[in-house]
Specification:
The protein is mainly alpha-helical. It has three domains: 91 residues; 128 residues, no CATH class; 84 residues, no CATH class. Helices cover 66% and strands 4% of the residues. Strands 1-2 form a two-stranded antiparallel sheet. A hairpin with a 2-residue loop joins strand 1 and strand 2. Helix 8 runs antiparallel to helix 9. The chain is globular and about 80 Å long. It starts with 14 loop residues before the first helix and ends with a helix. The C terminus is likely disordered.
């Protein structure tokens, strides 16, 4: 199928293109099926498609029909086997990430999702490597365990810093550095700091180490404390529940697990964030209610979460008034 992959921006994300490639081993086979045959095959595979996609494939096949590939059936058989293996591993990754989300919502680390640039997988990776936040007296303990500080050479009047120390927990360091890379790209505050470092000529790795060090202090205060976050990175925080809901939507998670995860997340939210989360959930419900389509899964999912948020908010307010 010479040139077939160039018809699509992301071949492995295009379901109809992959279905056609699995069915046809050459442009001649595509022309033999024709528009009706390709449409029938896609319907049988339960793949949604558009006629313009089929027309584009047929136009390519008419031009590439004269090109012959030696041992085309053998190449096609190898490709379909590798593509099946690729899809198998992709599904396994989705299942593992679902489980990561289920484990994450049972810990206070889920609060870090309020920071722009921090996603579910990065947060779960950090939580799994660090363990309970009660194991750290302060943010410096995190920095010390991960080895995010330079080695030091002293001799007589010589005192100079070298590369990062070697004796450290490399897994925590890697998790923090991955988060630092994401923050430098997607969080306005840390992106501004990274731009300043770049303008000063600072090496990218050194800039990311600085970002990771700053993040450890914010993360410790966010996870271990219950006070409102006044850090500039939280000036326009993301909705934790909405970020989780979108994550599960992309991963096609069953609705019962989505509801369980969202309700478990409510238990981990500080009292001062629940009102804002309730407003976001209510806004999503209104948006879906105004659509001219039939009932959607979110309409049966979020009311229970909203009710739980409002109950928890009321209980917290009564407790504060009592004391």
């Amino acid at each position: 199928m010479p040139g077939f992959a160039r018809l699509f921006d992301h071949l492995f994300d295009h379901k109809s293109a992959l279905a056609i490639a699995r069915r046809c081993e050459s442009p001649a086979a595509v022309l033999e099926l024709g528009s009706a045959g390709l449409s029938r095959h896609l319907r049988e595979q339960k793949v949604r498609h558009q006629l313009r996609t089929i027309d584009k494939v047929l136009a390519w096949a008419s031009q590439a029909a004269g090109e012959s590939i030696q041992d085309a059936p053998l190449h096609h058989a190898i490709w379909t086997d590798l593509e099946g293996l690729f899809q198998h591993y992709r599904q396994r990754i989705v299942e593992v990430e679902r489980q990561l989300a289920r484990d994450l919502v049972q810990t206070p680390y889920v609060r870090l999702l309020a920071m722009p640039g921090v996603n579910v997988v990065l947060t779960a990776d950090l939580a799994g490597e660090m363990g309970p936040i009660t194991s750290y007296a302060n943010a410096n303990r995190i920095t010390g365990r991960s080895g995010l500080y330079p080695s030091r050479h002293q001799s007589d009047q010589t005192d100079q810093n070298g590369p990062l120390i070697r004796k450290a927990n490399r897994r925590i360091r890697c998790a923090l550095m991955r988060i630092a890379e994401s923050l430098a790209c997607h969080c306005a505050y840390y992106r501004g700091l990274a731009d300043i470092d770049r303008a000063r000529g600072l090496h990218t790795k050194a800039s990311r180490v600085k970002t990771a060090n700053k993040f450890t202090r914010v993360a410790f205060a966010c996870v271990a404390g219950n006070e409102p976050m006044k850090h500039p990175a939280f000036q326009d925080p993301d909705s934790i529940l909405e970020k989780l809901r979108q994550f599960h939507h992309v991963h096609n998670t069953p609705m019962d697990q989505v509801l369980a995860d969202l309700q478990t997340t409510v238990e981990q939210l500080p009292y001062h964030t629940r009102k804002r989360e309730a407003e976001v959930v209510a806004g999503v419900l209104r948006q879906h209610a105004n659509r001219r389509r039939g009932p959607v899964a979110v309409g049966t999912l979020l009311p229970a979460v909203l009710a739980r948020l409002e109950v928890k908010t009321t209980e917290q307010k009564e407790t504060r008034d009592r004391f």
